[in-house]
Design brief:
Keywords: Membrane, Transmembrane, Transmembrane helix. The chain crosses the membrane at residues 6-23, 35-55. The protein is mainly alpha-helical and 65 residues long. It is 86% helix and 0% strand.
């Protein structure tokens, strides 16, 4: 695991926050909510992939099948 994933998640968070604030100030609250949800889903997909890799590594190390 590298530190790049932390920077990717932070970049997505910053981008989503900026887009959310711009959309809220322009009166598009519904689209701001959709952008926020999309950001959360993208980050969750990244984290779920990492957790899957972790469980696969644990199974391999302890030979659990």
């Amino acid at each position: 695991m590298s530190i790049d994933i932390i920077f990717k998640i932070a970049a997505i968070g910053i981008l989503v926050t900026v887009l959310n604030q711009i959309l809220i100030r322009s009166g598009r609250e519904e689209q701001a909510m959709m952008v926020t949800l999309a950001g959360v889903v993208v980050v969750l997909m990244m984290v779920i992939t990492m957790i899957n890799n972790l469980f696969t590594a644990v199974k391999t190390i302890f030979q659990l099948y």
